[in-house]
Amino acid sequence: MKEYLNNVLELTTKRNSTEPEFLQAVHEVLTTISPLVDANEERYKKWAVLERMTEPERIVMFRVPWINDKGEVVVNRGYRIQYSSLIGPYKGGLRFHPSVNLSILKFLAFEQIFKNALTGLPIGGGKGGSDFDPKGKSDDEIMKFCQSFMTELYRHIGQDVDVPAGDIGVGGREIGYLFGQYKRIRNAYEGGVLTGKDIVYGGSLARKEATGYGLMFFMREMLGAHNTCIMGKTVTISGSGNVATYACEKAQAMGAKVVAMSDSNGAIYDENGIDLDCVKEIKEVKRGRIKEYLECHKDAKYIEKTGSENPVWTIKTDIALPCATQNELILEDAQTLVKNGVIAVGEGANMPCSEEATKYLQENGVLVAPAKAANAGGVATSAIEMSQNSMRYYHTFDEVEQKLDCIMTNIFKSCQEASDEFGLKDDYVAGANIAAFKKLADAMIAQGVV
Ligand code: NDP
Questions:
Q1: What is the DSSP pairing of strand 125-130 with strand 162-165?
Q2: Residue pair 118/373 in contact by the 8 Å Cβ criterion
Q3: What residue's CA is closest to ligand 1, atom 41?
Q4: Does one domain contain both 290 and 352?
C-alpha cells in the first residue's frame, strides 16, 4: 500500500481512537480501494480526497428529555451524522437501540455514503438515532420519545437537506410519530422529509420489503454469475426484524428453504422450513420473542444464545444471510460455516461480518455479497419514495419492485466490473468499495475544496 493511503489511515486512527466500529469501516474501505488510489494517487492527494472522505461534514448531538408512564423524566442522547452531501441531500436511517453511540453511527453514516452512491440515485449519506431502547416501552412512551427527538431534529433536516428513515428499532410506527411532530412544528406538509412512511400518508409500496427483497435480487445475480441459483438452496438468516423477514419472504418465493431465524436471545431451527406468517405474527403484531415460534411449531428447535458465538451460524446451510447487526458473524462463525459447506454469504445488516470473517470466507471460496451493495435496496426504494412525494404520485407495488430489481442488478454489475477492472476476480467487497469511492471522489474534486 502506498504512503498516502497509510498516512491517512494513521491520521484517522489517531483522530478517532475511541471509535472502533468507525475505524473498522474506514480500514475495510481504504485497504480494499488501494488499487484505485494507486492509479489516482497524485490527483487524490492534491485534493485531499481520502482526508475529506474520512471526516463527516457535520455531527449534531442533542439531549432528548421525555416522560415515561410512571411520570419520571428520562434523558436520552440523540445524534445526526450528516456525512456527505456530495451527490444529494444527506440520507440514511435512524437507529434506536441502547448500544447506539458516536462510533456506531459514524460507521453507519460512512458506509451509507458508499451505499447510496452505488444505487445510482441522487442521495448523499447520513445516519442518526439515539441510545433509547424501544423494547418493553408502551406505545405512549414511544410516541413521547419520538416527539421529543423530533423537536430538536427538525431544525437540521428537510426534504432537500437531510432525509432520515428507519433502521434498528425504528419502523413504521416510529416514522409515523416522527413525521407527525415534524409536520406540526413546520406547519407544512413536506412529505419527502422522512421515508419509510405508511402508505396512507405518502409512503411507497414495497419500501417495507425493499431491503430484504433487494438482498435476494443481488444474491440471485451473484450466484447466476457463478452458474448456480437460489432455487433448492438451504438458507439461514440472523435477525427477525424488517430486513430478515423480507429476505426470508423473497428467498422462499425464489424456491429456497429457509430453516433458521433469530433475535438477540437465540435462534429457531425448523427443518421443515420457517413458517413466515408465524414469525410475522410474533414480531410485527405481538412484538414478542422468536422463542414463541415453538408454541405453534413443536418440532422446531430453539438454541439460546449464551456466549459470543451466534447460534444461527452453527446450523448447516448453503446461503447465510446476516440480517441483524454489526459484527454478528466473526471469524469463529465463518470457520463453522465453511466447515458446514456454505457457498455464499449475503450481508443484509450493515457490517455484519468482521474483517477477519470476510477474509476467511473469501479465502475459502465463499462468495460474499457486501452490505454496501447487497442491502442498498432499502435506501434505493426510499429515494423512489422521495421522488413519488415530489411528483405527488404513487407507483404500484409491481412498478417499485421492478425498479428495485433493476437497481440491484445494476449494483451487482458495477461491483463485478470494478473488481474485474483491477484484477480482483469475484471480490465483490473490493468491487463495491472501488465503484462507490470512484464516483464520490470524482464528485468531490468537481465541487472544489468544500
Ligand atoms: P429491526 O429492528 O427491524 O430488526 C433487528 C433484528 O436484529 C431483530 O431481530 C433484533 O433482535 C436483531 N438484533 C438487533 N441488535 C442485535 C444484537 N445486538 N444482537 C443480536 N441481534 C440483534 O432492524 P432492521 O431489520 O431494520 O435492521 C437490521 C440490520 O439491517 C441493521 O444492521 C440495519 O442497519 C440494516 N439495514 C436496514 C435497512 C432497512 O431498510 N431497515 C436498510 C439497510 C440496512 P431483538 O428484537 O432481540 O433486538
A1: unpaired
A2: yes
A3: 167
A4: yes
Within a domain: 229: yes
- The count of structural domains within the chain is 3
**Distance (Å, rounded) from C-alpha 124 to C-alpha 81?**
12
CATH number assigned to the domain comprising residue 104: 3.40.50.10860
Which segments of 313-427 does DSSP mark as H helices, in order?
331-339, 355-363, 371-374, 377-391, 397-421
C-beta of residue 65 within 8 angstroms of C-beta of residue 73: yes
Amino acid at the residue 235: V
Task: Tell which atom from ligand 1 comes closest to the C-alpha of 382.
Answer: 40
Strand segments (E) across 131-218: 162-165
Do both 236 and 352 map to the same domain? yes
Q: Does residue 39 sit within a domain?
A: yes
Q: Would the CB of 324 count as within 6 Å of ligand 1?
A: yes
Strands 319-322 and 73-84, bridge-based pairing:
unpaired
Paired residues of 303 in beta bridges = 267
Which residue's CA is the nearest one to ligand 1's atom 48?
264
- pLDDT band of residue 107 (cuts 50, 70, 90) is very high
pLDDT band at residue 1, thresholds of 50, 70 and 90? low
CA distance 157 to 216: 32
Catalytic residue among 127, 144, 372, 403: 127
Q: Do 251 and 107 share a structural domain?
A: no
What pLDDT does 2 receive?
Answer: 82
Which pLDDT does position 309 carry in this prediction? 78
The predicted model scores a pTM of 0.97
Q: Is the CB of 164 under 6 A from ligand 1?
A: no
The verdict on whether 127 is a catalytic residue reads yes
Cα separation, 29 vs 206, in Å, equals 30
Nearest CA, atom 30, ligand 1:
349
Determine the structural domain holding residue 212 and report its residue range: 208-374
Q: Do 16 and 25 meet the contact criterion of CB atoms below 8 Å apart?
A: no
CATH at residue 264: 3.40.50.720
CA of 323 to the centre of ligand 1 (A): 6
Residue 183: predicted pLDDT:
98
- For 33, the grid coordinates are 480501494
